[in-house]
Design goal:
Layout: H1 3-25, H2 27-57, H3 60-73, H4 77-113, H5 120-134, H6 140-152, H7 157-184, H8 189-227, H9 237-275, H10 280-310, H11 313-321, H12 325-352, H13 354-361, H14 366-375, H15 378-394, H16 399-423, H17 425-451, H18 456-483, H19 492-516, H20 519-524, H21 526-535
Length: about 550
């Protein structure tokens, strides 16, 4: 890959990771303000919103970028500009239509999750917060095509910066809005949560302002490219959007996978728990832990590993296109090994330290710790699904993403209620694990069939990674046991100390083993040696 492409990929990955990182840590003060009841209301609104926004925008930046890059490569710059101009109008219309659909569907969606007749007033609350978040749909699709246009010109900075600014503005409004409503104005929890979800619209305005600034700055360069247009291709708007649609569908499916799994829980969890004799309030408490509190923490190890692994996918695409089998095997080996090396110990470490982690981020809660302990390993599946789906796009087999996702969703839908009845909250987690596992197996089978890739090296290295992870796990467990003899995981500060010391001990052992065995060198190359020199390590 060229240095410009590598730099662009790094900038975009960094922006995405910082955005996700900020989106994780705001939950600490937010939970302190609104509590469990507030987070469950927040989640009722955000899951359907995420599905809508994913359908409206998930594939747009990537597909627009791919389309514009294709025609820029042959100096047909006017084709990309035509897409941009018509796309702005189309996305504005799409955004308004999406907003109207979600706004009007809010009472129906609320009725689907609040099935207990004793909680009719609660149904109105859910309707209010869903309608509050729906306004963001007006602006986000419009932003997505602007980001795609910049990315198509290999200008990743506007997307990265706008994502970070959008997240900062959103979080500031979430926390300020909830604080002012609850602490200053002594208003209702529903009003506070409504302000918090409306923050998605305010954050969108912040991101749009950044994109507009970059457009003013870069427009002379884009206009100069237009003057060099070869004018040999005149593609119709209909053909443009036919091509865009084919590009975007796989991205949309990958984008809505996790929200769809969450939405199945949202529709089935409470009614199933109530049918088993649980009070509706208790069912909601468990649902909030499952779909908001625990899920937010599970994404921690997934974000870094997935972001790093996905930076290798462009190289996979290049090797496959050039029919470089040796290069393709090397890139796939590195992608799977890096993913496993980073995600497996992080997921198991989070599971081991579930109780103090939950206390640090939220409050002491036996059910919360139990659910997080069971849910944390599923992070490995989230990361593996995202990467295998991206590889399918890289080897031009993206249509199989549709098959794998549909099968995975069908399994989740079929097993969720029976497993919840059998295992309560852990049943929903197991149904998610089974759905994702089957989807991943289908993706791996297609990767093997299309790329003629053999998993032998990954399997052998995977065994080594599992051994190192097991050693790390037992060392961390010993340290955890010793610390809990005089520190309590139910006290925030003491829980934070436990997490910090255990994380340092576990990570230190794990990376020492990786360095000593040279596994880290195989995975990350020359960068490891330069880091060792700076730290003066002689391992």
């Amino acid at each position: 890959m060229s240095s410009k492409l590598l730099r662009g990929t790094f900038v975009l990955t960094s922006g995405t990771f910082i955005s996700k990182f900020l989106g994780l840590f705001y939950v600490i003060p937010f939970f302190a303000l609104v509590g469990n009841e507030g987070t469950v209301l927040y989640n009722y609104a955000y899951v359907p919103y995420t599905i809508f926004i994913s359908i409206a925008t998930a594939g747009i930046p990537a597909s627009v970028s791919k389309f514009i890059s294709k025609y820029n490569a042959i100096e047909e710059y006017a084709v990309g500009r035509k897409l941009f101009k018509t796309g702005l109008v189309l996305m504005a219309i799409t955004g308004i239509i999406s907003f109207l659909i979600l706004y009007m569907a809010a009472p129906t969606l609320a009725a689907m999750v609040i099935t207990d007749p004793d909680f009719i007033d609660h149904m109105a609350d859910v309707t209010t917060v869903i309608r509050a978040v729906s306004f963001a749909l007006i602006i986000i699709p419009f932003m997505s095509i602007i980001r795609g246009f910049f990315q198509g010109h290999q200008s990743m900075e506007p997307t990265a910066v706008s994502q970070v600014v959008e997240q900062i503005v959103r979080i500031a409004f979430v926390l300020a809005g909830a604080f002012i409503v609850l602490e200053v104005m002594k208003g209702s929890l529903v009003t506070a949560v409504s302000f918090s979800v409306f923050a998605a619209f305010i954050g969108g305005l912040g991101g749009l302002a950044v994109l507009f600034w970059y457009w003013v700055k870069k427009k002379p360069m884009f206009d100069e490219l237009l003057l060099r247009d070869r004018k040999t291709i005149d593609i119709s708007v209909k053909d443009i959007y036919k091509e865009i649609l084919l590009y975007s569908i796989p991205f949309v499916l990958v984008g809505i996978a996790n929200p769809l799994f969450q939405f199945i829980d949202q529709l089935t969890f409470n009614p199933t728990m109530v049918s088993m004799g649980y009070a509706f309030n208790d069912a909601e408490h468990a649902f909030s832990i499952l779909n908001f509190q625990a899920q937010k923490l599970v994404i921690i190890p997934v974000s870094l590993a997935t972001a790093f692994s996905l930076t290798l996918v462009p190289a996979v695409t290049k090797s496959y296109t050039e029919q470089d089998q040796l290069g393709l095997n090397r890139q796939l080996n590195q992608t799977f090994q890096v993913l496993t090396y980073l995600t497996l110990p992080a997921a198991l470490g989070l599971s081991l330290l579930a109780e103090p982690f939950y206390t640090v981020f939220y409050e002491p809660d036996a059910l919360g710790a139990e659910v997080l302990e069971a849910y944390a390993p599923i992070g490995m599946l989230f990361a593996l699904y995202a990467v295998t789906a991206a590889i399918l796009q890289g080897i031009d087999a993206q249509k199989f993403n549709i098959l794998s996702l549909l099968v995975g969703i069908l399994i989740k839908l079929s097993l969720n209620i029976p497993l919840i009845k059998l295992m309560e909250t852990k049943g929903a987690i197991l149904a998610t694990a089974l759905g994702y596992s089957v989807a991943i197996l289908i993706n791996l089978f297609v990767i093997k069939a299309f790329s003629k890739y053999r998993f032998r090296l990954v399997f052998r290295r995977g065994i080594l990674i599992v051994i190192f992870t097991a050693i790390m796990y037992f060392v961390t467990k010993l340290v955890y046991y010793l610390l809990t003899m005089f520190l309590s995981p139910d006290v925030k500060l003491e829980a934070l100390i436990i997490v910090a010391i255990c994380a340092i001990a576990g990570a230190g052992v794990y990376f020492y083993l990786g360095l000593k065995s040279k596994l880290v060198n195989f995975l990350f190359g020359a960068r490891v040696d330069s880091i060792k020199e700076k730290l003066r390590l002689k391992i």
